[in-house]
Amino acid sequence: MRRVFAAVAVLPLLVAGCTSDPGPAPEPTPSSSSPTATPRTARPVPPPENLACYRLDYAAAVAPTSGARAVRCSGRHTSQTYAVGRLDTLVGGHLLAVDSERVQAQVAAACPRQLARFLGGDVADQRLSMLRAVWFTPTVEESDAGADWYRCDVIAVATDERLAGLTGRLGGVLDSAAGLDRYRMCGTARPGTADFVRVICTSDHSWRAIETVNFPDGPYPGAGAARAHGQTPCEDAGRAVAADALNFQWGYEWPTADQWQSGQRYGLCWAPA
Predict the structure, then answer these.
(1) 7: region left, alpha or beta (phi > 0 left; psi from -120 to 50 alpha)
(2) What is the pTM of this model?
(3) Nearest 5°: CA angle at 161, between 109 and 23?
(4) Which of 35, 96, 107, 234 could form a disulfide with 252 if both were Cys (CB 3.0 to 4.6 A apart)?
């Protein structure tokens, strides 16, 4: 009987949202006109259209604001809006800036939660896919002019810092076997090896993420305990998809302490594709 434990690596975080701090606003440019000149203000920006599509690259997708124009969803695109909401910038009678930590935290909590409902499938299906939430708010200048919306988009990560194209209807896509297969997480080599790169399964791959291992809430158990926690579940998952239940390979990735602190409380099981 030969069973091969194929991975001893930790699980890196994939894109899960935008940066919440766009940095300080630029200093105003001194006007050369008379002291009575009226300063310019941005025009109010209407809320984005829900279910609109955009052609973004990776850098634009993880930026805190977006000026991209919508494109036809039947054409080439890399993001789709799945929710548009209203920011709550009034707290305790005080108006908060759109780029404040508290306002950005609202969006960072709302968009991933709404993505789960939009995509369908169960929690494991969502974690095993390369579909991720990103979000945008108005610029400081647009917010000052009255814009108070936020926009949630879904993207598919093709590989490190590169997006995959989106096709078809994404609402409920993880409820179907075809949708699960198209957007599933795969690897170019055995996890834990130098040649391993995480990719979407429509790209060339030799390993496939097959199951998740959940951890109970609480403090980080330590790397050793986290590693041990997934051994049996991942071996069982590898056996279940193997052609030979007595001779098979399987892999396991577990969260680091930093990832645990950021809220990632699960590991991944892998098997050859």
Answers:
(1) beta
(2) 0.83
(3) 55
(4) 234
